[in-house]
Every structure is written in structure tokens, then in C-alpha cells.
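Schema walk-through. Below, the input block comes first and the output block second. Nothing else is stored per chain. Lengths vary across the set, and this one has 126 residues.
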Amino acid sequence: MEVVALERTLTELDHVRLLNLLRRDARGDGSASQLRAIEDVLDSSALVPSREVAPDVVTMYSQVVLRDTRSRLRNTLTLCYPADAEPTLGFVSVLSPVGSALLGLRVGSMARWSTPGGDEKVAEIL
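--- output ---
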């Protein structure tokens, strides 16, 4: 039997909080496609206790440095819940395309997402 390594890791606390966020998302904080994207991450991630998560894993409120694979430009973002999102200050919602793309990945991974305008983005997590 082949064992498949999961690409993403979530803390148990982040997992529970995100499940609760999805359950009460009657306000429409995220589009249907973005809610599905987070559901997919939740369903396909390895879960670990918060104290045991590796320091190179992107968790909620991680500050992440990204390098765009095309432009080579670096950008620093902090992954947060929708209520705390301030994109102009670098705080991006986990329900945004880039937010769901980053959650649970490790330093050195490539994050892939589509912008609201339909552009495909790829960035390395530094």
C-alpha cells in the first residue's frame, strides 16, 4: 500500500477555527469558489497540535515573504481571518485566493492562485 504525503499541514486549532468560520459564513465573506478552496485545504491537510507545528509552515497570522516567479519581486503578507484583513497593510484574508493558496504550505513551496481578474499567479514562499 502506497502512503501519500500530504502537501499541507494545519494546526488543529486553525482547522477548528476555519471549520467554524465556514459554518457561519452566511454574511458572504468569501465567494463560493473561495469557500470551496478552503474546504479543500481543510479536507486534504495533515493536522498537528499547535505546539508541534514546524516553524516553516504557514499558519494563521504567519508573516510570509513571497517571491513572484515571473517578476522576481518580493512581497510580505500576513495571513489572517476576514475580519482582520487589511490588504493595503499586507493583511490578507484566508478566504482570499492568495490566502487559501498559502495556508499550510512550507517555506520553499510554490503557491498558486488566480487573481480576481483571472490572472494566474505563482510565488515561492521564502
